[in-house]
Design goal:
Layout (H helix, E strand, L loop, with lengths): L2 E4 H14 L10 H7 L15 H4 L4 H12 L11 H9 L4 H24 L5 H12 L29 H24 L2 H20 L17 H16 L3 H19 L12 H4 L3 H13 L12 H12 L21 H10 L3 H9 L15 H6 L2 H6 L9 E4 L4 E5 L8 E6 L2 E2 L11 E5 L2 E4 L30 E3 L7 E5 L1 E7 L3 E7 L10 E11 L3 E10 L5 E7 L3 E3 L4 E6 L7 E6 L5 E7 L8 H7 L4 E7 L5 E10 L1
Antiparallel strand pairs: 1-10, 2-3, 3-4, 4-6, 5-9, 6-7, 8-14, 10-11, 11-12, 12-13, 13-20, 14-19, 15-16, 16-17, 17-20, 18-19
Helix pairs in contact: 4-6, 6-7, 6-8, 7-8, 7-9, 8-9, 8-10, 9-10, 10-11, 10-13, 15-16
Length: 649
């Protein structure tokens, strides 16, 4: 039986659910009630204290030994300072990586040394840890130079008299808070100034600014855009730090109370379908970070926040990660998302267990890896949870759900594959939405096609972040623009950024033989394009191929070009056929044909030059293999139908 879902209807249902679920986190407890449910700082031990050796004997010994081995390589580590000229690079050349490389490495070393000292508990790593703490406390800014305000007042260097909290300043507070929690007595035995400085620096740089100054990531923008991953990600580290470090329980409770209101600013407008407009690679710091907050709050309150796990929106937010999966390595990467993001396996498993989703648990277990002592750069606290769940995790069933159909009506994203539970055959996905999404690309109506889990027609995604990426020059970068997506250029005009540029008339229907997605992309272009309507339909005909049909109505027409992006060489075949030489790294080489009307369109193929600093990330993800196919409409008409069919040769 056919199931037809129209956006207008589903939207009303979603709005109803949205209205019923406001302030899920901050609306549960008053400040006074919160004070009573939070375990006092002096009594709180989220994991065994260092001198509880019986408790630490339950931690996974393979993991601990791998951290120890890695930490031993850091015994001679020379803690670098971060030169002012490294910070200035963001203004001078646009480079942010040199500054961040020094900063991130220091924190990774400190976190590894701490885990090794907890495990060995002989004091062998304490002096190195003290040096690391002192070195980090002496930094002018704990955050990233790329996050400094773009003004002459700063010009690439931090104003230390005006602290504010970005992602990495908050991350730094977490590292220092766990050092204090686990090694406080050993630090005091050397000098009471070490812990005093940890608190004073964290209070000045993190706690006070968060409680007294507005931060843009806390709430919606002036244009109305909802907060993105910065909100729950920073909150998760704020929560860690304040729960561990703040000895004044009244201040501690006040911070948690405010933090809950900030999290609701993220959660309230989040789509009921759980769709993450930042994509799977940012999901790990968006919905996943929201889960981090709830998990930590539960440890600090005897599970007073466990009710959140039963919320339908919260469940859908978790499930997004496997709903956005294409194959073992590839994920749907609209906007700035990566096509091959890393998976935080233990966190995903824990989230799945919390919401009682066996598919998510199997998905998380699928990505477990051998331990090599690598703690990564972010979300340090997740390692403590991981240490005490390995008996269960290593025995857990592994598997990839690979749903046959995915429909996210609020996000306006669909995905379908030939068969559920396998990557065999075709996979197609497309999006509607609007052009003011977080990490936005101008990509309304864009689609991707994969075969046997490997890319065929692609979304290029993002490259390397530079100063240009989040500036007024964002759309000077080619891969952010619609003419480097699977979209048309109309009368020489492409899509523009902004909330007004949006999809309309979005529809979806599916049955056993096909799945069809429809979207009118006319409003995603400015008036100069002369588009009255551009109704695009994308159909997966299971076992056969993909059909894309555009029914257009224009007020004027001078030129039309349809663009297709691929990561393989392509050539013109016989009339009406464009051949893509599909040669995946994992899989069998095969030719695919894009069928078109040769009397209507003429294709040309160009290899995209990857030369700019931003393009380094494209080469890393795809190699120097990006091709754009341009189908020029020979005699454009005000009313017409343009069609592609993609099938194996």
């Amino acid at each position: 039986m056919k199931k037809i879902f129209f956006l207008a209807f589903v939207g009303l249902v979603s709005l109803s659910a949205f209205a019923q679920k406001q302030n899920l986190l901050s609306g549960k407890f008053s400040k006074e009630a919160l004070q009573s449910v939070l375990i006092p700082q002096a009594k709180w031990a989220p994991f065994p204290r260092r001198d509880d050796r019986a408790g630490w004997a339950k931690a996974d010994q393979t993991m601990m030994k791998s951290y120890l081995k890695k930490a031993e390589s850091y015994l001679g580590y020379q803690w670098p300072y971060v030169p002012a000229t490294k910070s200035l690079l963001i203004e001078r050349t646009g480079d942010r990586d040199q500054y961040q490389a020094v900063s991130f490495e220091k924190r990774e070393v400190l976190g590894t040394l701490l885990l090794a000292e907890i495990y060995e508990n002989k004091g062998r790593f304490v002096d190195q840890i003290i040096d690391g703490v002192w070195s980090i406390c002496e930094e002018s800014f704990w955050g990233a130079s790329a996050h400094l305000p773009k003004s002459k007042e700063y010009a690439g260097l931090m104003d230390v008299s005006k602290p504010f909290v970005d992602l990495f300043a908050a991350e730094t507070a977490t590292y220092l808070a766990w050092v204090d929690f686990y090694l406080g007595d050993k630090l005091d035995a050397v000098s009471p100034q070490i812990r005093k400085r940890i608190y004073n620096e964290t209070n000045y740089r993190i706690f006070q600014p968060l409680m007294t100054k507005p931060h843009g990531w806390m709430t919606k923008t002036a244009a109305g855009r909802a907060p993105n991953n910065w909100n729950p990600w920073i909150c998760s580290n704020w929560l860690n730090a304040v729960l561990l470090l703040e000895k004044d329980d009244s201040k501690r409770t006040a911070s948690v109370h405010k933090l809950l209101t900030v999290l609701d600013e993220f959660l309230n407008p989040y789509p009921q379908d759980g769709g993450c407009d930042e994509g799977p690679s940012y999901w790990g710091a968006a919905a996943a970070s929201l889960y981090d907050n709830i998990a930590m709050l539960n440890t600090a309150s005897n599970n007073a926040f466990e009710y959140v796990y039963a919320d339908d929106k919260f469940k859908n937010m978790g499930r997004f990660i496997y709903r956005a999966q294409i194959s073992e390595k590839y994920f749907l990467n609209f906007a700035d998302a990566d096509p091959q993001p890393g998976m935080a396996a233990t966190m995903i498993y824990r989230y799945g267990k919390a919401i009682n989703d066996p598919d998510m648990m199997k998905f998380g277990a699928f990505y477990r890896k051998p331990e090599v002592g690598d703690i990564g750069k972010f979300h340090y606290f997740r390692h403590f949870y991981a240490l005490f769940m390995q008996d269960e995790f290593q025995k857990a069933v592994q598997g990839l759900p690979l749903p046959k159909n995915v429909w996210l009506p609020d996000l306006q994203v669909f995905a379908a594959r030939d068969q559920g539970g396998t990557t065999d055959g075709f996979y197609v996905a497309a999006k509607g939405g609007h052009n003011d999404e977080s990490h936005n690309h101008n990509d309304i109506g864009n689609y991707v096609v994969y075969y046997n889990g490997q890319p065929l027609l692609i979304d290029v995604g993002r490259g390397t972040y530079t100063a240009k990426t989040f500036s007024a020059r964002r759309y000077d970068i080619w891969y952010n623009c619609s003419d480097f997506h699977n979209l048309p250029t109309v009368n020489g005009v492409n899509q523009l950024p902004g909330r007004a540029f949006e999809a309309t008339n979005v529809t979806y229907k599916s049955d056993n033989t096909s799945t069809l997605f429809g979207v009118d992309i006319a409003k995603s272009y400015p008036k100069e394009a002369g588009i009255k309507s551009w109704q695009r339909s994308i159909r997966l005909n299971r076992g056969k191929g993909v059909k894309v049909e555009d029914v257009i109505s224009l007020s004027q027409v001078n030129s039309l070009t349809q663009h297709l992006m691929t990561c393989y060489p392509a050539e013109i075949g016989k009339p009406g056929e464009l051949i893509i030489h599909y040669t995946p790294k994992a899989g069998t080489a095969k030719d695919f044909i894009v069928h078109f009307n040769p009397k209507q369109m003429q294709p040309t193929v160009e290899k995209v030059k990857l030369e700019a600093p931003e393009d380094r990330g494209i080469v890393t993800k795809w190699g120097d293999t990006i091709y754009r196919i341009n189908f020029r409409v020979l005699s454009p008409k005000p009313a017409d139908k343009l069609m592609f069919e993609i099938a194996a040769k």
